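Ticket opened by: R.M.
Priority: normal
Category: complex prediction / small molecule

The reporter submitted a protein together with adenosine-5'-triphosphate and asked that the result be attached to this ticket for the collaborator who will pick it up next week. Submitted input follows.
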Amino acid sequence: MKLTIPSNAEKILRILEKNGHEAYVVGGCVRDSVLGRNPDDWDITTSAEPAQVKALFRRTVDTGLQHGTVTVLMDKESYEVTTYRVDGDYEDGRHPKEVLFTSSLEEDLKRRDFTINAMAYHPDRGLVDLFHGMDDIREQVIRCVGSPMERFGEDALRILRAVRFSAQLGFSIEEETKNGICAMAPNLKFVSAERIQTELVKLLISPHPDYFRTAYETGLTRQFLPEFDACMETEQNTPHHCRTVGEHTLNSLLNIRADKVLRLTMLLHDIGKPAVKKTDGNGRDHFKTHGPRGEEMARTILRRLKFDNDTIAKVCRLILWHDARPLPEMAEVRRAVNRIGEDIFSLYLEVQKADMLAQSSYKRNEKTARLEGVARCYARILEERQCVSLKTLAVKGRDLIEAGYPPGPQIGEKLDQLLEHVLEFPEDNQKDVLLSLLI
Ligand code: ATP
Ligand code: MG
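Result attached by the on-call engineer:
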């Protein structure tokens, strides 16, 4: 098998070899090239020790010397060059106690997580595939190198990586590997929130975000997102729905584009439902206030997973409003844009559409008509640059002070009143008109 590798990667391999070392490209980049995907980065594995690597290249960075990794800079590119290594005993389910260098490529490939990630390639010697990664690529399965229980026991992050690769590639998880995941799920407690976050986001923005179901089925969500287990266990006896809250959620992920904020919003948009569910005398379920409750819960969850404040703020605001249904009339929509926020209103429309498409077909035509009507009003608001917030109100606080109003909280109140008026009559957003209204 012939793979195309970047010329600088090949140059690094040749320099290492000319100096008596072995060197291969390895891991994710080999997997991705075989699959016809564009690798993000090209990692190199070599028998040379870090000091030897550093001596051979002019520009290097000590990325992780204790793990044997030196970054080699070439032109504007950078390559991680890592010494063949064996991971010593793992004491905490996440970090090897020590890392031992080895001169054997086989040993180095053996420590890698999955067969598809344990292949090396050299332009002259071709593919080194000691664990049948190619067979697993052909059969589209994620399979541990060696015993799954042992491998997951050594490093619990691999549990999440298995599910994430399965979603990214559309692969299934081989049975024994899956059993290992189920058995070792409690070890997720050794994985930091930041790592969980990274894997969760990669899974969610993948082509198969609904494979998040596997995380539930294997008992992983119980460890890091038990709120989702409650959703999977909550039926919705209402004509609007035909699935449990959890299945509706998974389906909604498929109806929205692969954007971090949007996919997180869909994952958590109904997270408040189990807590507020009420069944009426006719046996019909209601979920009043699940928006605000969901917002509150989403904030707790996203903080727990150490998401950044900007992401948390946007996702929470979208969840709070996801079920708001303004009528498709100009003034109504201007008020909705004002309430929900100019910055996320178009995202809110995408969320509503994805949510609707994951519901039953009950009143689908009416729901679609309203949503499209709102979108048309919103397009016109943008086109005509209508004022929907204080930011573009034609009068500012200082205009009121100049017009003789005493500084203080009343200024804010007056501005709010003027904005109220402008939301109803956008053509009045002119300084003289607004000031004349005040008298
Ligand atoms: P991606 O870059 O898309 O996350 P990748 O497979 O390149 O996928 P990296 O985290 O970049 O993943 O790691 C590069 C390689 O290092 C992997 O292909 C695998 O061989 C090995 N590896 C990474 N993390 C682990 C781990 N936790 N346990 C064992 N091997 C690992
Ligand atoms: Mg990689």
